[in-house]
Structure formats: structure tokens, C-alpha cells
Amino acid sequence: MRILLVEADRLTLSQLTDALTSQGHKITPVGNSQRALELALAQTYELILLNTQLSDLDGVHLCRHLRRQGYQKPILLLVEDASSDGIAGLEAGADDYVIKPYTLPDLLVRVQVLLQRQSLVSSPVLLYWEALCLNATAIEVTYRGQPVSLTPKEFNLLELFLRNPQRVFSRTAILDRIWSFDVVPNESTVTNHIKELRQKLKAAGLAADVIETVYGLGYRLKPPPKPLQASGPLPPPGEDGMLQTQDIPPKILVVDEDPGVITALRYLLQPWGLAISGLQDATQLWERLNAIAPDLLILDLGLSHLNGADLCQRVRQDERWGNLPILVITTNTRAEAIRQAFAAGADDFVSKPIVGPELVTRVVSRLEQRRTWQKGRSQLAGNQTYATGEPVPEVFVTRVQNTYGNILLVDDQPENLRTLSKILSQQGYKVRKALSGAMALAAIESQPPDLIVLDVRMPEMNGYEVCASLKARAATRDIPIVFVSALDATADKLKAFTVGGVDYITKPFQAEEVLARIKHQLIILQQQRQLTLRYQQLHQEIQKRQRSEVTLTQMQVSEARWQTIFDRISLPLGLLDLNGHWLRLNPCLCELLGDSEAELLHTPMAASFQLENSESPLFPIQEWFSPETAALQLELTCCPKTGAEIRVSLAALVLQDNWNQPHSVFVQVHCLESEGA
């Protein structure tokens, strides 16, 4: 662990440095508060051991100043008096104090307790330049997952530039920040170390220099290579761990009051071809949403003027932005904060300090899910034009209150299985357990679960191998897999997402986070199933309508042929509706009635025909027929518009639709004789 030791007395400084170094810690000794302040804000330490009696600024004021600057790491004070310095130190933000004179074992125990406490709640501090990763917590550097061997000074140099990407450092400034006060090297030492650092990075595979020379001024971090062009697709998964998203680069809106966070996210996400927009003033959120229409929102919960959780909930409740994926980031990782974030509608949760690959994989995963969903929605929308003009029903489900699923837990530790099983069973989930990868595969073969919670470290067959095996099978490749592991290294998380995992939870886990992430994955699974089902239904409907259209076309052809015969036949023919009005008349019938078809259409038949020797009306026409009789013949008197009355015989036939219901009456008229003939 890296410890910043602030002590004005050189003898005490040397003794404490030796004692802490013997415990395996890396110590940076400092003799004054100003130097301590610069180092604390420029580099990463897991603990600050601070004497309150300093010459330039006392330790209590220094502690207070660090906390006001947002410093989160533990601070242990060495005080003369508990009732004054001790209480004042705690009020200033210190985590603990040791009263002088102290015993060395007591001090070491206090240090160890604070470091253990910190390790349980903190995430590794990772800094990136392209595929170069500096882990400030583990004190290691990797390029494309491969370690890069650096000396402590080279490591400190690289960290200094990565933490201050826009700043130019003179050689004197670098000496002040990197070298201790009791060592007085010259400026050429800085030049030589930077030269060695460049050579080692180039040997590791970096084609471009990370550090550039600003002539006459000093050195600064060189901007990373130009990000991938927006017009091209992102690279597929490969040896560099890159993940593939969609061909059209998505737009991401980052809402955070810290401009450094926005800059860091640009460095992390722009090389993936993503368009990043930053917003420091959350009051302008709605205006910015409408202006850029982002595909994903990254929202800091620790806003000073607005409640981040309330803002997340307002976005989720908005009609236009209710389905926008929201990823929240915050320094508060307590269980209650996580629960509130998911309750407010967040889709995912990332803690500060941000682990670069974890953030990238979660962002890319969310965008891929959204792309797949939108593709399905567009397929549905493309089938909206039917003969009836009916719209496609809305099938997008944003929230499900009660989502119960069949979950398989896989872990070689029975105690872990019991703990997870209890948490999930109490929420109504059906839980099965497996103690090995082989048992898990057998259980999945017999009954595929809805979701798998999979431990990484298992004998014989680890979690990555189990996941890869499942993703290689068509029957199991779509089962979501959530990894749960004590491994929190960047490479482990990245590999989990690369082999096909949908999420990664680090042990020791919080029950609220486990439940929220599992529920979210089950909601996604339910949405996918609903989409698939609806798509199948629409596909069947389309096929049915296509068959109906073919039948209709055939009927139209037949009707055209019938119309031709109807018009050309030399017999008076007509078609009536069930109310006795003309629907169609052929030329021969029009000649008989002494008028054109246009004049006769929709007029009552009773105006031209009358039952012989009867004053009763012809209508309603349904009364002509009985259920047993669909055809009849009547003798009528025809009363043409011009000319004498004519005795005629009328044959009528009821025409039925596809449901055997009468819809019209076909009539044929035969002239018997004319009056006076």
C-alpha cells in the first residue's frame, strides 16, 4: 500500500519510514505541509499519516483543507493531546488519531485497520491513455493487458502526466513533485527518466509517444491517437479486448459538475467511436436532451444543487425520455445509495473512482442492448402498413414490478451458495444450486434457467470456461450470465464481459446491488421474450393478410370477368341490396326501365315494379325468402319511366358472403307481354 508520511522531525520520519516499509508498504516521506498537499492531490495514496505539529501549516488545518478539496482517502493523525488536537482533527475530517508518545506496534495496528477498511469500500484507481492502463492502487502498468515494468520514479512520472493531461510541467516542477526533499538531483535527471520511460513504453508496443516535449517549457501528456471515425464500425472483440457496438456511433450525454470527470470519460469512450457531450449545469439537462437526443445518459448522483436520484427519476418518468438508458456514477457506495439509484430508475451503477474497462464494457453493453431493441422495434414498425391500416400495438415494457425467474447459482463454496440463495429466495425467485462447472452444465442441460449467477474461481472448470461453453451452444447462448467474484482486477472484469457475461459483481457484495442487477437482467430478458412473441404474432398476421390479399385479388379478377358477362348478356339482369335498392343494372335492364344506370342506381326497385293484383309493398325484401328458400320467382308489373306497363316474370336469388350471411339479391327479368299487345 502507498502511504504519504508527513513528519517534520527527520529522525522520526526515518524511523517511521523504515518501520512501515518493513510491513510491505511503499512510503513517500515529506517534511512540510505544502509539499504534502501537492503530492496528495497529484498522486494516489491509500493512507496519509500526518503529524499535527508542522512548521508551515499544522496538520489539523492541512487535513481540513484536503477534505474541502474532496480528498476521500483515510487520514491518521499523530497528536500531542487527545482533548484538543485529537477532537479538532476528527472534526476536520481525520479518520483516527494516535497520541504521542506512542508505541510502534500500536501505530502499525491503527494503520493496518484503516487500510483494511479502505480496501473494502474503494475501487482501484485506473488511469488510461489509449490501451495503456495505470493502476494507481496496485501500482502496476499494463498495455493491452500485458504488464509494463517501470521503476518507482518512472511510475510516478507516468502517473503525474496521466492525472494532469492538459498541464505542462517544467523540469523543476517535476523534481518538486516526484523527488523527496532530502534528494537534490539536477534537471538532467528528469530528462533521463523521461527518456527511459518513453523507451519502455515503446518496447511494450506503443507506437506513439505518451509524453511530448514542449520546447522551452517542459513536458506534458500527448493527446491519444485520433479516435475511430464515426462512419466506420467499432472493432470486434480481439486480443486487445475491444468490444463491438453498432455501425452508427451512439451519442452519450455526461452530466457531472466535475470537468475532470467529463474529460476522463472522453478519453475512455471516444476511442470506441462514441460521441461524448458534457454538461456541468444539471439545470440545463432538458434543453440538452432535446438538442442532442442521446442514446445513453451518464448521470452523477452527487450533484451539489440538485438531487441526482430525483433527477434520474424525473427523466425516467418523462414521456419522451422514459426509455433512455441511464448509468449513474457516484462516490457513495453504501447499500442505501445503491438501492435508491436503482429505485429511481437507473439501469446500471458505477462507483467512483471509475474503473475504466468496467465503465466501457457496461456502456457498450447498454448500447448494444438498446441497438438490438431498436432493431426489433424497427422491424415491427416496418410491418405497420396493412390492408386495414391498423397500427402495430406498443410492446415496449419499461418496468416490471414483479419479475420472478428461475435462477441457477454456481459456486464451489457452499456458504456462498447459501447466502445468495437466501437473498434471492426471500424475493420470490426460484433458486437452484451447483457446486462446480460440470454440475452447472448438467443442470442447465436438464432444465435451462432464466439467469445464471456464476462464480469465476472454481476448480477444474472456472466460470469463464463455463460461460464460453454455454455461449457456444445455440440452446443456451441467450441465457444471461452474471459473474460474482472476489477478483476485481481490470483484466478479470474485461474478460468476463468479453466471454459473454452481462454483468459483474465484486465480492464482498451488497444484497441490494445483487437484487437490483439480477432484477434488471430479468426485465431485459422479459422484454426480449415479449418482443420475440409479438414479432411471431405479427409475422403470422402478415402471412394471413397476404393470403387474404391473394384471395381478394382472385375475387377481383373473377368479378371483372363476371362484370363483362353481366354487361354483354342480352337478358335484363340486376343486383339489389337487402333494402331493395339497385346496386347494379346491365344495359338490357336499363333499356327496359327506360333510364340510365347512373339514374337508377340506389333507387328502390318498387319504383319500377309492382306485384300483380296486390297493393302490398315488395319490401322488406328479406321477407321474400325463408331460411329454406334462397330462390323464388314472381310475376310483376313493370312500370317503365316511359311507355306502357309490361307484365314480367322476375327470378330472384339470394347471394351470401363468406360467413353464409345474405348480402345482396341477384334478379333476372323476363318480359311476358305488353299491355294492349
Low-confidence stretches: 226-246, 383-403
As for the number of domains, it is 5
Largest sheet features: 6 strands, antiparallel
The chain-level structural class is alpha/beta
Q: What is the CATH class of the largest domain?
A: Alpha Beta
Number of helices: 20
Q: Please report the total strand number as a whole number.
A: 27
**Within the largest sheet, what's the order of strands?**
23-22-27-26-25-24
Rg from alpha-carbon coordinates: 41 Å
- What percentage of the residues does DSSP assign to strands (E)? 15-25%
**Rounded mean pLDDT score:** 78
What oligomeric state is this?
Answer: single chain
Q: What's the CATH superfamily of the largest domain, by name? A: Response regulator
Could you say what the CATH architecture of the largest domain is?
3-Layer(aba) Sandwich
| CATH topology type of the largest domain | Rossmann fold
Helical coverage, percent range = 40-55%
First-residue to last-residue Cα separation: 127 Å
Shape: elongated
Topology:
Elements: E1 2-6, H1 10-22, E2 26-30, H2 33-42, E3 47-51, H3 59-68, E4 75-79, H4 82-92, E5 96-99, H5 104-121, E6 126-129, E7 132-135, E8 140-143, E9 146-148, H6 152-163, H7 171-178, H8 187-204, E10 211-214, E11 218-221, E12 251-255, H9 259-269, E13 275-279, H10 285-292, E14 296-300, H11 308-317, E15 326-330, H12 335-343, E16 348-351, H13 356-381, E17 406-410, H14 414-425, E18 430-434, H15 437-446, E19 451-455, H16 463-471, E20 481-485, H17 490-498, E21 503-506, H18 511-568, E22 573-576, E23 582-585, H19 587-593, H20 597-600, E24 609-611, E25 631-638, E26 646-656, E27 662-674
Parallel strand pairs: 1-2, 1-3, 3-4, 4-5, 12-13, 12-14, 14-15, 15-16, 17-18, 17-19, 19-20, 20-21
Antiparallel strand pairs: 6-7, 7-8, 8-9, 10-11, 22-23, 22-27, 24-25, 25-26, 26-27
